[in-house]
Amino acid sequence: MTTDNKPISFLHLLSLNTLLYVSIALYAPFLSAYYRQHGLTTTQIGMLSMIACISTIFIQPLWARRADLTGKARTYASIVTAGVAAALMTYYLGTSFQNFLFSASLLAVFSTSVSPMVDAIVIRNARELGYDFSKIRLGGTIGYAIVVYFVGSFLKAHPSAQFTLAAVSYLVFALAIRLLPKSEDEQPIAVTEKKKRFNFNLEENFRTHDVIYVLLFAFVFQLGAGFSGAYLSVYAVDLGYTQSEIGLMQFCSASSEIPILLLAHRLFRRFDSVKLIGIGCLLMGIRIFIVSGGSLAFFICSQLMQGVTYMVIHYGCSTYISAAARVGKASECQSILHIVQTGIASILAYLFGGRLIEWIGFAPSYRLVGCAVLVTSVVLMFIMRGKTEPHTEAI
After folding, report:
1. Spatial separation of the C-alpha atoms in residues 92 and 260, rounded to whole Å
2. What is the pLDDT of residues 168-208, one digit of tens each?
3. What is the pLDDT of residues 326-376, one digit of tens each?
């Protein structure tokens, strides 16, 4: 399926971002709870979550590298998206740890590449065509919020339906990617790097040295966010809450992103992007600490900080990376961000998070991790003070 080489419309980019987060919302927030309801321990859940992180480091860069080497952004983005749909259906093979291990591994091969590839396409086109990316990203937030709210209640009675719903959504998503113009399969190629393997060298991929601070903040943020996100629904299930309450928490979380996205374009143009990212990281420490209150009210209060934590980090990091990337390096630069954040940082969060909870319990673990993220963020902000270059504008 092909289309003419005409500019991509705002609505098409909006639909891609919306489908990305709607598809995620149909299964990801409920997956850990599904594992718990089938008798898995926090350590086992951490191990399954960690598979995606390993794939982010070792598999995801291969997809990104291939997309950049061939210039076929559309083709490879649609392949990994359709691959997620197929992998999700393998969850119906059984509910033992071994079955979950197989399904999670197959899912990770494809799912970890969808977001960086789609982000590379959407953010690049938004910048080139003069669209406000914050408005495009708003589609994903609103779509996610609506889906988790209504699907959470449905999954309370039919928890396994999440995999069919998500698979259908990813197939529609893959079709929307295939409807992109042919120019998305004719992207510029960095010819001098053609025969090399994936290159993590920051100087060869980025035009600014300040990217190191962006990656450090992304790393620290994800240490906390990975831990909190992986075990929050498990914590909720252990306290007697169901998918319905988990859906409510996720709805509050996504809704809090809306005011940030409405202001993001002006906010990141007016203030230094790196410093805003640092503030978002600092607030994440406070957010994690609040969870230790151990009730639905505290959970919701924490989730309402999603906008000033996750969205500031996500929007700030992804747009900064896109603007700082060298020609022909769009997918690889987004890939580097994902390696640092959803790869290395998340592995550490999942690896030690489950053990920490089993050792000292949920509430003390959330207090300890929250304090660690808060203190580290303050130290990083102090170190980078006065050392950053004029900020790279967001889009």
Report:
1. 38
2. 999 999 999 999 999 998 888 765 544 455 566 787 788 88
3. 887 877 888 888 889 888 898 888 888 888 998 999 999 999 999 999 999
For 206, which DSSP code? B
Nearest-10 Cα torsion for 46, 52, 218, 326: 170
For residue 337, what are the contacts with CB-CB under 8 A and spacing of at least 6? 116, 214, 215, 218, 317, 318, 321
Q: Are 291 and 299 in contact (CB under 8 A)?
A: yes
Angle, vertex CA 70, rays to CA 103 and CA 166, nearest 5: 30
Question: Do the Cβ atoms of 266 and 156 come closer than 8 Å?
Answer: no
DSSP 242-302: -HHHHHHHHHHHHHTHHHHHHHHHHHHHHS-HHHHHHHHHHHHHHHHHHHTT-SHHHHHHH
By the 8 A CB rule, do 170 and 81 touch? yes
CB 346 within 8 A of CB 53: yes
Label each residue of 111-140 as H, E or C.
HHHHHHHHHHHHHHHHHHHCCCHHHHHHHH
Longest dimension (CA), the chain: 59
Q: What's the token pair of residue 5?
A: 């080489």
Helix H or strand E encompassing 168: helix 161-178
Position of tokens 């498990």?
234
> pLDDT digit string (tens) for 126-180?
989 999 988 998 999 999 999 988 888 898 889 999 999 999 999 999 999 999 9
Angle CA 316–317–321, to nearest 5: 120
CA 223 – CA 112 distance, rounded (Å): 17
Confidence (pTM): 0.77
Q: Which residue type sits at 374?
A: L
Nearest to 354 by CA among 45, 116, 9: 45
pLDDT of 388 above 70:
no
Helix, strand or coil, per DSSP, at residue 200: coil
Provide the mean pLDDT of the chain. 89
Give the containing element (helix H, strand E) for 214. Answer: helix 211-238
